[in-house]
């Protein structure tokens, strides 16, 4: 009983902490050095696609005195783009081990070295006339992103009081969106001359002219940043579960509408504008919940000892999905044509139903409250308050007796 009372008192003192400048700076600069870099590298590689392909061709001519085949250029470009996700997968798989050795903060600090090495390789590749350096740099920055996207949400969730845990956790999503937006800004023709932004053809298929695609793409980055900021402001009032379900449901609706509008775009002149609105709505719906909240939930649904493994699994699924969509979507689009987005409609509907049935609300709840919610679902005994103190303070079972001795002496 005495240990339970001590656990409850310590927990309350932790949860009632106010927002401090130190906490905000840790969240912002941590996300700036991790999430922002991920978002930036997610989008910036597409802007200089024409330039990079020309660099590949010129390097090949300098080496072999003949131009490279078009198929080889396409292969090299595909590797350059996709190897980022492969690096992210490797980073996510290594998170659990690295955290055990270096800890959360140490992992974030050491992880910056990957970003520095990648930046040097990618920036010096042209000088060295080596496209291999660019590809290796993309892989290393992928490793950096894979580690960062797992460790940062875990770290923020553990240093933040429960009443602002969701808002602080959304720094991760907001800085990702800002990174994507920055990459899109640098892809504007005014900044890069004739280096147009590379798209997957969705906007062009919707009927828009190539000349205005960079500006339309820029607006998508702006709307996703705005949606992420609004989500961060309201998450502690509305809750995680409603935002997630709303996001997936809205995405299903707007993907369905986009499918309809794409089928009628050749018959009505103003139909491409409705398609554009649907694209913006899908992006806003994604960033309002599904884009950032899963990172927060992963840290809330698992005890401290289990979080590294949980984030490793979540990161692996994230990067595998990222790679699979990038690899398979062109084939899906070629097969289903304008009905390609119905695949995502089905995924969003299934996700909404599953979350409504299974996911408990974690807003303003302690880790014990969340454990009790799952205990009710699985019909197992509730954890005790002393177990909650172990989750918060990371007291190992074999240290529990020592904690009792200290408390008794006091």
From TrEMBL:
Domain Major facilitator superfamily (MFS) profile: 1-363
Transmembrane residue ranges: 21-40, 75-99, 106-124, 136-156, 168-192, 212-235, 242-261, 273-297, 309-332, 338-359
SUPFAM superfamilies: MFS general substrate transporter (SSF103473)
UniProt superkingdom: Eukaryota
Alphabetical UniProt keywords: Membrane, Transmembrane, Transmembrane helix
Membrane topology qualifier: Multi-pass membrane protein
GO MF annotation: an example: D-glucose transmembrane transporter activity
Protein's cellular compartments: Membrane
InterPro entries per record: GLUT, MFS_dom, MFS_sugar_transport-like, MFS_trans_sf, Sugar/inositol_transpt, Sugar_transporter_CS
Keyword Transmembrane tagged: yes
The protein, known as: Solute carrier family 2 member 9
Species per Swiss-Prot/TrEMBL record: Takifugu rubripes (Japanese pufferfish)
């Amino acid at each position: 009983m005495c240990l339970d009372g001590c656990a409850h008192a310590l927990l309350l003192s932790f949860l009632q902490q106010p927002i401090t400048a130190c906490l905000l700076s840790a969240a912002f600069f941590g996300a700036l050095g991790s999430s922002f870099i991920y978002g930036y590298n997610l989008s910036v590689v597409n802007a200089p696609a024409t330039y990079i392909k020309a660099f590949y061709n010129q390097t090949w001519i300098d080496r072999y005195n003949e131009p490279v085949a078009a198929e080889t250029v396409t292969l090299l470009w595909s590797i350059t783009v996709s190897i980022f996700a492969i690096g992210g997968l490797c980073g996510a798989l290594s998170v659990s081990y690295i955290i055990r050795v270096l800890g959360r903060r140490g992992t974030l600090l050491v992880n910056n070295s990957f970003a520095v090495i990648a930046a040097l390789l990618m920036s010096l590749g042209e000088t060295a006339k080596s496209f291999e350096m660019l590809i290796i740099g993309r892989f290393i920055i992928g490793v950096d992103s894979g580690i960062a996207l797992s460790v940062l949400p875990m770290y923020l969730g553990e240093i933040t009081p429960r009443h602002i845990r969701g808002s602080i956790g959304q720094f991760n999503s907001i800085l990702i969106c800002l990174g994507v937006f920055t990459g899109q800004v640098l892809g504007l023709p005014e900044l890069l001359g004739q280096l147009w932004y590379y798209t997957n053809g969705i906007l062009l298929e919707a009927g828009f002219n190539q000349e205005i695609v960079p500006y339309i793409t820029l607006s998508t980055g702006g709307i996703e940043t705005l949606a992420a900021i609004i989500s961060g402001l309201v998450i502690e009032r509305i809750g995680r579960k409603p935002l997630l379900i709303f996001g997936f449901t809205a995405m299903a609706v707007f993907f369905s509408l986009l499918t309809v509008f794409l089928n009628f775009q050749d018959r009505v002149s103003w139909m491409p504008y409705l398609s554009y609105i649907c694209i913006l709505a899908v992006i806003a719906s994604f960033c309002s919940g599904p884009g950032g909240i899963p990172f927060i939930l992963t840290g809330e649904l698992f005890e401290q000892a289990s979080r590294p493994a949980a984030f490793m699994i979540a990161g692996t699924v994230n990067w595998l999905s990222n790679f699979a969509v990038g690899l398979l979507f062109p084939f899906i689009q070629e097969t289903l044509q304008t009905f390609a987005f119905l695949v995502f409609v089905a995924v969003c509907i299934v996700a909404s139903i599953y979350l409504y049935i299974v996911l408990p609300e974690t807003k303003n709840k302690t880790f014990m409250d969340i454990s009790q919610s799952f205990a009710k679902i699985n019909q197992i005994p509730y954890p005790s308050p002393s177990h909650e103190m172990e989750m918060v303070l990371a007291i190992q079972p074999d240290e529990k007796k020592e904690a009792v001795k200290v408390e008794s002496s006091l």
